[in-house]
Structure formats: structure tokens, C-alpha cells
Amino acid sequence: MKIIYTHFLLYGSMLIMLVVASVIIPDNALYADPNAFNRLMKPPSERNPSPAQDGIHDPESAGVSSLQKPRQSFGALPKGKSGNYVDWVKALEGGDIAPRYDRDDPAAEPVIMDLNIVREVKGSMPNVVYPHKQHTEWLDCSNCHPAIFIPQKGANNISMASILLGEQCGVCHGKVAFPVSECRRCHSQVKQTTASMDKKASAQKEVTQ
Ligand code: HEC
Ligand code: HEC
Ligand code: HEC
Question: Domain 78-209 belongs to what architecture?
């Protein structure tokens, strides 16, 4: 009898707690905007807000109103698929922008290195081609070497998990360069097609039979 009574107390109080919880937490407060955390999925009307609304600049500052609005300044640049919707590599290559390489020296030229590093990826995902050229047009070797990457092919254990956590390529991609959602810009070297692999596999099967 005592055991039944304590069970009744336990389950009874759990039931009361559930009822109370569902009353005090309104559904719409929790689920109003399921994408609020995901800045990659903003509707076009909310992309590239003006400096006073972007959450980066201090809206109280007098200088904010003198900054050009991104939608105005980006309007003439080649379109990108995500991030701030500008293809900055094309903008640089096409001469639409001419960023200063050295803040203090307007005549300084970048040291451009044209060397691609191919990182083979297991499974069906295309291999990653890391291009030095497009990076060294903007960046100095010391932006990556040796703090982010040891300058030796294969010396770094790069993984998608650490990129998504904001390390390795993720130090910049998703922050100041195109975001991680654009898989095929990095995974750009297509491997053998599955059809040709199937052919090979069936040919091998025939040999072993
Ligand atoms: C945006 C980052 C970044 C910048 C900037 C950068 N590198 Fe690299 N570098 C890499 C990555 C990634 C690798 C490949 C490492 C690996 O495979 O583990 C690499 C590899 C190398 C290698 C090894 C090549 C090989 O075949 O073993 C050398 C040498 C190198 N970089 C020199 C430079 C020089 C010189 C500069 C400046 C002109 C430079 N890097 C700028 C990211 C960068
Ligand atoms: C220090 C910052 C930095 C790091 C680290 C970095 N990138 Fe980039 N990356 C850039 C910038 C800046 C651009 C040019 C702007 C843009 O495209 O958004 C760029 C552009 C690219 C492009 C575009 C080339 C094109 O032709 O469109 C590829 C591909 C790329 N990065 C791959 C990688 C990979 C793979 C890694 C890691 C091995 C990496 N990046 C690490 C800053 C970086
Ligand atoms: C900024 C460049 C970049 C982008 C964008 C990117 N990747 Fe990667 N990815 C890499 C690099 C670098 C590696 C490591 C390759 C290696 O050396 O093994 C990698 C590895 C992988 C691997 C192998 C397993 C692992 O976790 O290391 C998978 C699968 C993968 N990526 C899927 C994706 C998918 C899906 C997307 C798009 C949602 C994506 N990647 C976008 C650069 C990128």
C-alpha cells in the first residue's frame, strides 16, 4: 500500500509539473523563428542590412549614417550565391575592386603564388582543391603559415568537423570569405563517376569468376 502511494505521489507530481510547464512556456515564444540562429538562410529582403541595422556598427554613432549602404555598394559587383552575395574572387579578377594590399603603402603589390594543393577526400565527395593564387591575391603568407597550416603538403590533418567549428579553412570561410555551405567551391575536383566505377567493379568480378 505504501509503495502504491509513493508511486502515485511521484507520477502525480510529474503530471502536475508537465501541465504547469505547458501553461507557462507559450509555443510561439520557442518556435517563432526556427532560423533565427542561421544567418545563411535570411530572406532576400533581410540580406546586407544598412550599417545602423547590421548588429556590427553602433547605431548611436554619428558616423554610421555616413557609411555607404552595402546594397548600394555591392549592386554593381558580380553576384555570389551566399554570404554577402558577392563573388569577391570574380570582383577582384574583373577589376571591379582594387583593394590596397598594404594599409600604409598604396604602391605595395601582393606576392602571388600559383600553387594548387589537392586534398583527396574519401567517399563520393569531390576532392578539395586549395588554390594559393586566389588567396595570396588578398592575403600574406603569414596569415596562414605557420599558425593555421604548416607549409607542407599533407602535414595538416584537415577535417570538415574542425572547419565547421571555425578552425583551419573555417578561420576565414563563413566569417570573412564565402561560407561552408558552398561545398563545390572547395570540393571542386570531381572523381571517377560511379558509372565508370561500377564498370570497373563488374570487370574485376568477371576476372575473378
Ligand atoms: C589562406 C591560407 C594560406 C595562405 C595565405 C598561404 N598558404 Fe601556403 N598552404 C596553405 C595550405 C592549406 C597548404 C596545404 C597544407 C597541407 O596540405 O597540409 C599550403 C601549403 C604550402 C606549401 C607546401 C607545398 C608542398 O607541395 O608541400 C608551401 C611551400 C606554401 N604553402 C607556401 C606558401 C607561401 C610562400 C605563401 C605566400 C606567398 C602561402 N603559402 C600562403 C594555406 C595557405
Ligand atoms: C586566412 C583566411 C583564409 C583561410 C584560412 C582560407 N581561406 Fe579560402 N579564401 C579566403 C578569401 C579572403 C577568399 C576570397 C574571398 C571569397 O571568395 O569569399 C578565399 C577564396 C577561396 C576559394 C575561391 C577560389 C575561387 O576561384 O573562387 C577557395 C576554393 C578557397 N578559398 C578554399 C579554401 C580552403 C580549401 C581552405 C582551407 C584549406 C581555405 N580556403 C582557407 C580566405 C581564406
Ligand atoms: C572552405 C572549403 C570547404 C568547403 C566550403 C567545404 N569543405 Fe568539406 N572539406 C574541406 C577540406 C579542406 C577537407 C579535408 C580534406 C582532407 O584533407 O581530408 C574537407 C573534407 C570533407 C569531407 C571528408 C570527411 C571529413 O569530414 O573530413 C566531407 C564528407 C566533406 N568535406 C563534405 C563537405 C560538404 C557536404 C560541404 C558543404 C556543406 C563541404 N564539405 C564544404 C573543405 C571544404
Answer: Alpha-Beta Complex (3.90)
